[in-house]
Every structure is written in C-alpha cells, then in structure tokens.
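Researcher: Last one for today. Full complex below.
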Amino acid sequence: MDFGYHEENEIFRQKIKDFLKENITREFRAEVREMQGKGMGPLTKELILKIGDMGWIGMSWPEEYGGRNADRIDQYIFEEEFVRARVPLNIGNFIEQAPAIMASGSEEQKKYFIPRLVRGEITFALGYSEPSGGTDLASLKTRAVEGHNDYVINGQKTFTSGAETASHIYLMTRTDPDKPKHEGISIFLVPMDTPGITVRPQWTLSGGRTNEVFFDDVKVPKTTMLGNKNDGWYIGSKALNLGRAGAMRYYTYVSLFEETLYFARSNPLGVELMADEIARDKMAELYCEAQVARLFTLRSLSMVRRGIAPPYEISSEKVWGPEFLVKSTEVISQILGPYNQLWEGSDLAPHRGSFPKRYVSAMVSTFGHGSTQVMRDAIARRGLDLPRGPV
Amino acid sequence: MDTLLNEDEALLRDQARAFLTKESPTALVREVESENKDYDPSLWKKTAELGWLGITLPEEYGGTPVPFSHLGLLFEEMGRGIAPIPIHPTMVAALTINKSGTEQQKQSILPAVISGDKILSWAWFERGGDIDLSSVQLEAIVEGDHLVLSGTKLFVDGYHHADQCLVVCRSLADSEGNEGISLVLVDTNSKGLSSDRLPTMAGDIQDAVSFDSVRVPLSNVLGEVHNGGAAAVSLLETAVILNCSMIVGASHKAIEMTFSYAKDREAFGQPIGSFQAIQHMCANMVTWVDGATMLTHEALWKISEGLPATIEIASAKAFCNERCPAALREGNQIHAGIAQIKEYDLQLWYRRSAAWCMRLGTSIQHRRIVAREIGIVPS
Ligand SMILES: Cc1cc2nc3c(=O)[nH]c(=O)nc-3n(C[C@H](O)[C@H](O)[C@H](O)COP(=O)(O)OP(=O)(O)OC[C@H]3O[C@@H](n4cnc5c(N)ncnc54)[C@H](O)[C@@H]3O)c2cc1C
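Model: Here's the assembly. Have a good evening.
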C-alpha cells in the first residue's frame, strides 16, 4: 500500500499550481461568471489553448492520439487541481467521450476529434437521457433509420446539459427496434448545427440550464456513427463507467464540505457556530466520510493503473460520494441554519449564496450518471455475485 | 500512489490467512471461550514460531524490521480469524517498550516476547473510559528509587496471563493533561496488586486492576519519569490502529458469510440474495467495510512512513466503530433467526467485532480528535 505521491508527482502538482496562479486572474473569473450558459469567452479560449500547449489534456492517452503515455496519477493531479480551481474545463469529455472515440472510433474520427477536443474546439453534449427515462437508458426511443448514404434521426433527448454551447452531441439512438433492447443501439457524433436539431432550455432549481433537444428528420452521414452499428450500448457503458470515477467527480462530492470547513475556520460567523460541540462533532464526522470518498477514488485509480477492471469499486465510489454530498448538504444546513437558505444577492449570504444552490441540486449526483439504486445493483451482482432478481 | 497491497503485503496476508484458517478453527475459538481459558497457548506458540510476534521489531532482539503496514495486515487476519491469543495487548506494549524503553528494558523483554515466552498487557483506562490523558489519574508517588502506585485501572486486556503490565500513571500530583505522566512496567505478581475479572460480550476477559501502594523500581519507568505523556499518546494510537485492523478483518469475514448465505437461503421460491432490498443491504455492507479498510490502510501507511498519523487513526477508529457494526447488523438481519443461535458461527464474529468497536475510545471521543486536528475548536 502506498498512499503518497512521489516527488515527481509533487513537482508536477506544483507546476500546475503555479500555472493556475498565473492564469486564473480576477478578469478570468469575471468572464466565467458572465458567460455562464453562453459558451466560452476569449480568456477561456486562450486558457484552453495554453493548457493544450502544456500537453496536460489527455496526457495519459497513447501518443498517436495526442497524449504522451503519462502516468495516470499525473492525469489525476491535473484534474484535481483544475477542478479545485474551478476552471470550466470540459473534463467530462476527456474522461468519457475521448476514450470512447479512441477505443471505438474510425481512424478519421480519431484524427478529427481528438486534437480538436484537446484544443477545446470541439465539445460534446451527452445525448443519453430521454423523456421516457434515464436510468433504464437502454429503453431509449430516438430512432436512427439507415438510408443509402446516411441515417435519418427522429426523436427527443432531455436534460442535455451544455447542448446550447456544445459543437457536437454524443447521441445514443435506436438503430434496430426488433433486437433485444441492448443490442439495437448505436452512437452518433453529430454536429449541433445539423439541420433539424432544436434546443429548448430547461432551467434547474439551482439556476443552471439544461436542455431538451429535438431531432426532426436529421440527416447525418454514415461516417458519424461511432464504432459498429448496434454496438452503441457496449461502447457507451464502458466509457460511462470510467466517467463515474476520478478527480472531477470526487471533488464535486466533497467541495461543499471543504468550503464549509474553510468557512468554519476563517469566517467570524463560522467560528462562532463552531462553539457548539455537536456542530464540531458533525463536521468531524463529515471529514471522516469525505476521506472515504477520496480513498475510494484513489482505489479505483490504483486498480485501473494496474490494469484491473474494477468489478464493483467504481460503483461503490458512485454510491458513497453522491450520498456523502447529499448528507453534507443536510448536516451543513442544520449547522448554518437560516444562513444556509440565503440566496445569491443577499449581503448576509455566506459564499455568495452558493449553499442553498448546492442544497437543492445535490441529488443530481445520486440519480444522474447511474442512480445509486442501480449502482447498488451493480455492486451486488457484479461485485458480490448475488443472483439477478426479477428486474 | 497505489492503495492496493504490494507483493510482500499480499504474501503476508495470504500466509496469515492460510495459517489461521487451519490453526484457529471455530471449534478452538469456542473451546477457549466456553472454558474461560482466555487464550490458546499452543496457537500462541505457533504464531511466535512463524516470527510474527517480532514483526516491525529490531533484528537484534529477534524481530523482523518490516514496515508497520505488515503488522496491520497481520492484525487484520487475526481479526478475520478471531484468533484466541493475546497478540493485541502484547504487541502494543512491546512496540511501546521498543519506542520509549531503555536498552536494558528492551533486552530483557523484547526477545522473550518475540519467542512467545512473555505475554504483556497495558493499562490506561480508568473510570471515565476516556481516551484523553486528562482522564489518567492513577496516583504514582516517587519514594526514593521507587514509584508507589495507588488506584484502579479498568478494561485491561490480556491481564490475566500477562507477566508484566505497562501502566500509564500520573506521577506529578498537580499536573494536568499530558504533563506529569509516567509509563511504568509492573510485574503482575507485585505485592499490593489485585484484579477482578470483567467478562465481556466478546467472550474474552478484561480485568479491573487495583493498585494498593504497589512499589515499582524507578528503573522500570519507560523513558523519563513524569515525562511519559507523548509515549502514552503514542501507545494509545498504536493500540487504536491495530484494533481497527482487527475490526476490519473480522467485519470482512462476517459480511462474506452473509453474502454466501444470501445466495443459498431461499424464500418465496428464490434465493433471498436476488431480492433488490437484500442486494442493496449487501452493497452497503461492502461499501462501509471497504471504507473502514481504506481509512485504516491509509493510517497504517502513514505510520510505516514515519509520518504523523493522529488524524488518520482517529478518523479510521471513528468510522470503524460505527460503520462496521452497522454492516454486521445488516448481516444479522439477512440471516434473521439463525443469527441469534449460538451454535451458528456468525455470532462469533458479531460479538467480538462489536465489542472491539466499544473499546479504546468511542466514535464521539475520536471525532473530538478529528475536530481538533482539522482546526475547528471551541471559540
Ligand atoms: C441537471 C441535470 C443535468 C443532466 N445532464 C444530463 C446530460 O447532460 N445528458 C444526459 O443524457 N442526461 C442528463 N441528465 C439526466 C440524468 O442522467 C437522469 O435524470 C438520470 O439518468 C435519471 O433518469 P430519470 O430522471 O429519467 O429518472 P428515472 O430513470 O425515471 O428514475 C426514477 C427513479 O427510479 C429509480 N429506478 C430506476 N430503475 C430502477 C431499478 N431497476 N431499481 C430500483 N430503482 C430504479 C431511479 O433510481 C430513480 O430513483 C441530467 C439531469 C439533470 C437533472
């Protein structure tokens, strides 16, 4: 067992920290706030190009796809520091879509998409969920019908985050309705400006945006299909599993706690609230549980790095982390009391009113990207070898 | 960074597991318990013969100076095998002697411990049962070249068969907290010592030890007299993390027994393990016990590296104390009726690991340490 970072890793972390210190300026932060839901501003574009030049994005990928076979630990450190600094990088694309394209794409697709993803010129929205359901994803109805040279797509996606700014959609469709549900699915890499695509906003409780995306006789060339026809489920689930782990997700789960801890130590109100022994006990409990979230992430990373496909560990991580986040919103709201409900715009609101936003949106992580219910099914069936039940 | 076991660690774990599966069958565990034997001398001897009582101790006394993580993994297996031997009290005292004792103390004690010829215990807790040193009030007065001890220690593990007991006492009358503390080795046949057996839920026996003006030579003090606060804290930390290892080992075994039961046992014409409600309980059980394991392993690694591990140890213990018994309770619910029956083996693990989670500091006390370490303090 080795829970430490080697000196080279630490040097690398320092390099990233220095980079962030130099480049994440007040103006940059202002731009990010300003541009929320509107795409990338000039400073963000410039930053992404700079990061690309540093060779940090996808550095653990093979060389021929723009990576440099770097250690996954360094990749983890890069992701961790960037999410901690709240840089709006499309890390989801780097851990999910890019590996899927590298694993299953045609040579042209790899050559076209990978370098552009690295440079931030291409971003994917994730076109999975449909009105009929997200958990039972394989029941999706959006149809792609094969023609001579193309496919014609009709249907609807829902909760498609980032569709308003993405250049492409990573689109899961049904290509064979007569086969068993998992075996008639294909993935397409579709430019969002293809005629027939309409995007309609859905506003969320925390003030964010996601979208409904409608497909109306959308014609796409056959070359937009990722991998073989009807292989889409298997291509997608492999990448989906990867996307459930890693620094980005871990940090999503623990950032609220870390910020609250900072508040409790440094803000006069926070310090006052910590006079209560029970409040301190609850914070200590959250601390221990946050460490478990971190350690589960490092465990999955260690396994993947050794070439072991984790039979259930990623699912455990995806149960523990999100439920920790939900619990921490509960506990913290009972420590902060009325301050926790103060929304953006009130002077008394701690952390610019971000606490209630986290409170109302925490559960996106427990049902999204594999709900905690089906994750538990996976632990039991794949990890513990319990027999499959009626579902 | 690689949180999984390395080759040496995996080898030790496998060897220990194979040994205990063979040498510590439940029949033996039951026999030691039902006959109030406290421990099995033959298993103790065999463990010593494998060199395991010398793990992490210096070569010159017959030990094997390997990283501390190895000792933790051995204890994990001892917990898994619910081995009826006084390895926890003996090793905790031996490690403390090695760290803080004089050369002469080490020479006279460690080789005998490593060869299995000496059993040790240690006494810290008093009436409050608290892990804060301020709760240590056992009076020790310096009289010439002796310390004279008076008072009572509680929950002393392995005392009955121990040759010596390492006692944490307050040697400066007006001192507070970590000040004025001494650690002293007391022969268990000293005049003025008496003990009362405290039967426990684990089926092992602790002792309440009374000191009635027990005279101990100053040469038996570990390190300097009055200056043992740091050594006492370190003793407790060692005890706590090895206790976590045992809890984690026993818990893994108990949940594995539950998973296989869930596959075999049928209700409504199907294995109960195929019901989603049962599956989700099982998923929680493995997640909680794995979480306890990861926290414990990180602490072991820090100790192996010589890094401060106070917060890691306290976090591991606070988590183990609550989540491991919770996992085992789910295991009992899945077994239902049969889990209440003595003849069925699950209870052997259930009672022991539950009792281990009630010793060496409650989760509330350990979270107090965590809170202090993360910098939230009463204003
Ligand atoms: C803010 C936001 C952003 C999102 N972004 C995206 C995105 O970019 N792209 C995308 O494709 N999707 C996105 N989603 C959708 C998200 O992935 C889905 O909400 C999620 O998959 C759950 O699907 P559902 O909402 O249809 O719930 P359902 O699938 O209807 O599930 C309802 C409940 O039933 C439970 N359930 C289902 N099956 C079982 C079972 N077998 N056993 C036990 N319980 C079960 C679920 O756990 C859940 O609790 C987003 C959602 C939100 C809110």
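DSSP finds eleven helices and nine strands in chain B. The radius of gyration of chain B is 21 Å.
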